Amino acid sequence: MNKSRLEAFSDGVLAIIITIMVLELKTPHGTSLRTLIPLIPVFMSYVLSFIYVGIYWNNHHHMMQLVKKVNGSVLWANLHLLFWLSLFPFATAWMGENHYETWPVVMYGGVMLMASIAYYILVRTLIKLHGQESDVAKAYGKDVKGKISTGIYVFAILSSFISSWIGIFCYILVAAIWFIPDTRVEKTIANE
Amino acid sequence: MNKSRLEAFSDGVLAIIITIMVLELKTPHGTSLRTLIPLIPVFMSYVLSFIYVGIYWNNHHHMMQLVKKVNGSVLWANLHLLFWLSLFPFATAWMGENHYETWPVVMYGGVMLMASIAYYILVRTLIKLHGQESDVAKAYGKDVKGKISTGIYVFAILSSFISSWIGIFCYILVAAIWFIPDTRVEKTIANE
Amino acid sequence: MNKSRLEAFSDGVLAIIITIMVLELKTPHGTSLRTLIPLIPVFMSYVLSFIYVGIYWNNHHHMMQLVKKVNGSVLWANLHLLFWLSLFPFATAWMGENHYETWPVVMYGGVMLMASIAYYILVRTLIKLHGQESDVAKAYGKDVKGKISTGIYVFAILSSFISSWIGIFCYILVAAIWFIPDTRVEKTIANE
Amino acid sequence: MNKSRLEAFSDGVLAIIITIMVLELKTPHGTSLRTLIPLIPVFMSYVLSFIYVGIYWNNHHHMMQLVKKVNGSVLWANLHLLFWLSLFPFATAWMGENHYETWPVVMYGGVMLMASIAYYILVRTLIKLHGQESDVAKAYGKDVKGKISTGIYVFAILSSFISSWIGIFCYILVAAIWFIPDTRVEKTIANE
């Protein structure tokens, strides 16, 4: 089975998720600059989630370069990842409309955490299919970045009960970690 | 005529269907955990429908591996399937917002039933085009799984008038049957 | 310039148009079968427009089989077609929610008419690029079906002022004419 | 890394942006022709933004013809462009619903300006990757059109405080400049 439809379907879902989130930026009723002020937290949440979906798309794109084949398990592991990503618009809207209160921030972190676990499962499923000597296994074998992110998410969720701003700070931190390009794939390709 | 645009268009429609369903998860107005409680049945319906669309995409993807060519009839049989799948968001929302009452559950089953019949028609149209000796015919000749599913849908619709929970149970059962990977295609490919 | 991105972009837009229309089927507030009755005209409009978008996608798919190259003019002629098709959801919703009253039916016909003219312009632009001896020119040289459709739309719009049901009948008639597969392309391919 | 997924993802996002904008054309409640009058400024804004997204897609399509490879920086520069384009529906709706008052027109210009800067950054990132002797560098080296557009946007934003119609005129002017096909790419291809 070839991977092109899995890529096309994932691209489609991610493109829609990223664009649906912008619908939360509801047209304000006035025309003064002041009517935009209540939209600022909604907008900031949108920016954060846009970057997160961008990171997932970017990483998905990088990883798929090393993938030679897919099977039924990979298709489902990928759908599982898309499921959690599809909850980003909901989590983003709830957080943005409520000025970063505790539970919405916790929920946002929960969706992030589940997405990162789903990504981990997808990586493991791909390594299982390709074998321990494959490029995927070599590039993602240790996955330090992924493990650190997951740890930060757990910390963010717990510390949000003290102050939701610690949670927000953690989410920005993880985004920053991943924004730095993932050199593992490029190294693996270069080493061949 | 080649099959790539049929795949791309189907991927697009399925990606949008799966993502539109999540829009039913309306942002709650409060920020306490309790405000999420009314969303639970909506969320459960979303999960069920997500899995169903995932199954259809998965099966479509598997089947298209064996397809060598398409014609006008196949394009229309595929559009017919997409039509019934496009009603999933409506059926899902009606069922989820009404705590699984009788008619919404019956309607959900009706859409499922029509989609399964549309899939059956698509399979027959493909077999007619490729001939009885083709890979598609060999893999889908008997289609026991498809027939059982259709039977369960009919049973689910009828028994929902006694209790809608029997219907719900049947829908979960069919999802479970299909979740187990469709080994027919992989066997056919392996036998070559 | 190759045609694959034009196909991909058109597939994307058509997939979204076809799926957005279903959002007009708003979830009813009750759970009885009777609450679905007001949705019947909305549903019938959806079915009609789904078939129309299906026909356009089908014809676009057929025509693109004969296209060897594209240029800037073709890209814009294609975008012009997509523009009018993008008004289908609006025209469909207005007609469906108003029980086929005069002006909504006229507007629906107007959008149909403009889309058919846009398709005609796209065909001419493609023929100009490929030359009079090309496959596109041979297959679409006379375009009897296209001219008849355009004529019926004009008649439908005018006669809707007498009774909007004449208009509706005409729209169904044109759909029926096009539903019969377009054998011109298949003949042209077969003749080679 | 190959460019096909970047193209597919961009096509997806642009297709959704262009189609989401039409959702602002809300179904009017009456059935007379008069009920459409309040929609005219919304419709005109839609036409303008449709043309703008069309221009961006067209230019993106042209430019990608000359691109041989992509890297992480290009993926992010492209996402950055898509981010600003994703704000088109919001800016379009705000402007269209408020009869072209000052701040909405300024905001529209601001989004346009940011998108043009993002496009410029994408071009530079691609030139950096391909080298000064590459086709991309030759075709986009001076980028007079891009610089003029950016200048007009700045002028439009400032002059909108005198009269928002100067701003609108400028936006139409830039659209007209770009509507004329971008011959640079075709020349570069022809020269090879």
TrEMBL record, chains A, B, C, D:
* Cell compartments where the protein resides: Membrane
What membrane topology term does the record carry?
A: Multi-pass membrane protein
Enumerate the catalysed reactions.
K(+)(in) = K(+)(out)
The identity of this protein, by name, is Uncharacterized membrane protein
An example of a GO molecular function for this protein is: proton channel activity
Task: Show the InterPro entries listed in the entry.
Answer: TMEM175-like (IPR010617)
**Annotated transmembrane regions:** 12-29, 35-55, 75-96, 102-122, 152-180
Q: Which organism is it from?
A: Pedobacter africanus
Which UniProt keywords are listed? Ion channel, Ion transport, Membrane, Potassium, Potassium channel, Potassium transport, Transmembrane, Transmembrane helix, Transport
The family database entries (PANTHER family) matched by this protein are listed as:
ENDOSOMAL/LYSOSOMAL POTASSIUM CHANNEL TMEM175, ENDOSOMAL_LYSOSOMAL PROTON CHANNEL TMEM175
